[in-house]
Amino acid sequence: QVEQFARFLDRLKGIQEPNSDGTLLDRTMVLFGSGMGNANSHTNNDLPVILAGGGFRHGEFMDYPAETRQRVPLSNLYVSMLQQFGLEVDTFSQSTGTLPGLETV
């Protein structure tokens, strides 16, 4: 699945946007992840997700461990994505704000 995801991203990156310096990937947000953080215990804590494209700064691993700060809901990522789409939203589901550390280009 990850190899197919990478191929998909490569294809988006290879398509130049008309009248723009960017690619289709620059204008597309692609979220890839799992519904389980730990398959043995079937928990939905610490979910692994990958966000590509969409005008965000990428190239780093971001970790939000519960031991060092308050647990960050995944819905905070959705709020950040919706705001990047241009929607004026402050909450989504059980969000507590936007995802800390996620920056736009």
Q: Biggest β-sheet: count, sense, barrel?
A: 2 strands, antiparallel
- If helices are DSSP runs of H or I spanning 4 or more residues, what is the number of helices? 2
Task: Tell me what portion of residues adopts beta-strand conformation.
Answer: 5-15%
Number of strands: 2
Reading the helices and strands in chain order gives HEEH
Shape: globular
Helix percent band? 10-25%
Describe the structure concisely.
By secondary structure, the protein is α+β, with helices and mostly antiparallel strands. Helix content is 21%, strand content 10%.
Protein described:
- This protein is an alpha+beta fold.
- The chain has a domain at 2-63.
- It contains two helices and two strands, in the order αββα.
- A two-stranded antiparallel sheet has the order 1-2.
- The longest helix is centred in the first third of the chain and has 12 residues, at 2-13.
- The radius of gyration is 15 Å and the shape is globular.
- The model has no long low-confidence stretch (mean pLDDT 90).
